[in-house]
């Protein structure tokens, strides 16, 4: 870190739990974020502002009018443009020292695995069950930590998965691919601030994990009810018969 970094990240350096060592870990870190919609647009500015050294952001979608109700990283002038590329520009303006790669594509299983193997952590900020399962498979195969979030209606959820550690559950242990189903906000709606609450909490869990500080919600599902403004914490175990991680 040079003098500019010491000044920029001074509020982190003042925290005993972080200090220079923790900040340097962020500067050296690489993170893949799958999804640049409500959750990704909320999480990514904090990852960049905090000093994560390299961010890979992936989303094949373009911005439309319905996104502006909750995806506050975008504005009316962005309508019709690539979410990943617009967000890349916003993040570059926020922190020019963070290396940001924008992938305006739907990632194949092979590409997901390649990317998961190249980073320290993955954030699942996507909006559909099939992609969440694919991201989980890639993280389990690569043994890369995963912070997964979802938000619909007035309800959100977050879980941290640690395939880099032995005997820990994965996403498929909790949500079986044959029976689980998710609801799209296009059908059921989503409360505007909810994606901010869940997305920024994902960023917090990711930053703590990268620095090795605090407690992470591994083996726990955090549920948030925006109407009641309440969090609920549910523990769950590894499924020995899990079709994704059961053989490990």
Task: Describe the protein in words.
The chain has helices at residues 3-8, 10-13, 19-28, 38-50, 83-94, 109-118, 129-142, 171-174, 185-188, 192-211, and strands spanning 30-34, 54-58, 99-103, 121-124, 146-152, 155-161, 220-225, 230-235. By secondary structure, it is α/β, with parallel strands linked by helices. Helix 6 (109-118) crosses helix 7.
**What is the overall number of helices?**
10
Distance between the termini: 39 Å
Shape: globular
Kindly provide the radius of gyration, computed on alpha-carbon positions and rounded to a whole number of angstroms: 17 Å
Please list the strands of the largest sheet in the order they lie side by side: 3-2-1-4-5-6-7-8
Provide mean pLDDT, rounded: 94
Low-confidence stretches at least 5 residues in length (pLDDT < 50)? none
* Helix/sheet category: alpha/beta
Helicity level: 25-40%
Percent range for β-strand residues? 15-25%
How many strands, which pairing sense, and closed or not: the largest β-sheet?
8 strands, mixed
Question: Which series of helices and strands comes N to C?
Answer: HHHEHEHEHEHEEHHHEE
Strand runs, count: 8
